[in-house]
Amino acid sequence: MLNIFQQAEHAMLPKMTAAERSRQEFAKSFKQHIQANFLPAVTSAYFKRAVPAYAEEKGEAPTDYREARTAFQDDPLFQFYLSSQRVSQELMWFGVNESITRQLDELKQQAEQLPATGGTLEIDDDFTVPKYVSSLDIHCMPGGYVGKDGSDPLHAGALYDRGVYLYAMGYMGPNNDDMGRSVCNYITRNLLDFKPMKILDIGCTVGHSTLPYAELFPNAEVTAIDVAGSCVTYAHYRAEAMGLPVHFKQRNAEATGFEDESFDLVVSHILLHETSKKAMPKIFNECHRILKPGGYMIHADLPPFENMDAYTQLILDNETWYNNEPFWSAMREMDQIELAKKAGFAEEDIFFDTAGMAIMEQARQAELDVADAVEELGEREFTAGEYAPGGGWEVLVGKK
Q: What φ, ψ does residue 324 adopt, rounded to 5°?
C-alpha cells in the first residue's frame, strides 16, 4: 500500500536525478521499514518488559503517555527505534534539499512562465510571523515553514512539497492532497444540503489540501492563508501549475483581517498541532467570527489523547520529543469542544467525526493490493504507528 502511489509530477516540483531519487526513496523505504518491522518489536517490548516492571514498582500499569515514557525511556530497543526515526527524518530532508538547491534558478524561471488561472498571491512585506512558527525547524525541516534567512522564497515550499510526500510514505496520495480530498468527500456525503460558495483554508502551507476544494467545488471562491510567505508563494505557483484558481494570502489564522461573516466554510488540515496553546482559542474565535450563519468550521487532525491507550499516546508523543513538534501533544490534551463553545458555537452543533481516507478508496477503486487498508473505513480505533485512525482523519465539525 505504501508504495502504490508515486508523487505526481507538476511544473513546480523539482526534477530528480537517478541518484537523488534513489536516496529519497531509500529514506521513504526506511521509514516504512521502521513502521512495519521495528515498531511491532517495540510494542512487544513495551508490554512484556516495561509495563510489568512499572506495575511492580508503582502498583499499576502506566495510564498516560507521561507514565509510559517513564516506564520505557531507558529500554535499548525503544531508544534504537527513536534514533532510527530521527535518522530517517534527517535523511529525508537531506535527500530532498540537494535536488531543490540544484534547480532553484530553473524553478524561478518556470514560475514566471506558468499560464494564469485567475488565482492571486498576496504577500505582506511587513508581516510578523508568530514565534511558535519562526523559532524552530518544525518536524526537523531545515528553516521550518518560513525557510532559512536569505533563502529563495520558493525553496521552503519546494522542500515541503516533496518532503511531506516522503514523510507520509505515499499515504497522502499522488498530489499530497488526501486530507483535503477526504474532507471534501465528507462534506458532500454528510452535509447534504451544504453548498459552500466561499471557502477559506487556514494554515494552508503549500496548498496540498486546498486544491481539492477548488477542484470539487468549482463554483466556489477558494482562499487560503498561511503565516509563511515562502509557503504561500510556492503554493500560488503550484496551483497555477496544476490549473486550479486559488487566492493565496500571507495572513495569520488568529486574526485573518477578513470581514465578519465572510465565508461559508472554514477548514484546516493538521494546523492545530502546529499552533500554541494561546493561539488555538484565538483561531477558534476567528473561525466563528468570519463564518456566515449556517456555515461550517472543520479542522482535520489526529484524535485527542483521551481516545487512545497510554502506549499509543507515547508513540505519538515522540513527535514532540524527537521531531520538533512542540505543540503535538499539548493540542491533544486541550478540550476542543469547549474551545468551540467558548468561541460561540452551540454545543449541539459541535462534534468529532471521521472522514474516510480518500487514498484508501482510490486504491480500492483501482483494484490494487490494499491488504493494509481497513475493511470498513473508520470502524476501528487508532493503533500506534498508523498514519490515520482506522483509515480516516479525525475531524472537528462546528456549525454556526
A: 55, 45
Matching residue, cell 517495540:
42
- Cell 540544484 appears where? 102
Residue type, 233: T
- 291-301 and 350-356 as β-strands: parallel, antiparallel, unpaired? unpaired
The model's pLDDT over 239-275, given as tens digits with 9 standing for 90+, comes to: 999 999 999 999 999 999 999 999 999 999 999 989 9
pLDDT band (50, 70, 90) for residue 389: low
Among candidates 49, 161, 5, which has minimal Cα distance to 97? 161
Alpha carbons 284 and 297: distance in angstroms, whole number: 9
Q: How far is CA 105 from CA 14, 23, 108, 121, 141, in A?
A: 11, 23, 5, 20, 21
- Give whole-number Cα distances, 268 to 180, 377, 392, 395, in Å: 9, 21, 16, 10
Q: State which H helix or E strand residue 154 sits in.
A: helix 153-167
Three state DSSP letters for 224-292: EEECCHHHHHHHHHHHHHCCCCCEEEECECCECCCCCCCEEEEEEECCHHHCCCCHHHHHHHHHHHHEE
What domains can be seen in the chain, in order of their start residue? 18-116+131-163 (no CATH), 173-399 (3.40.50.150)
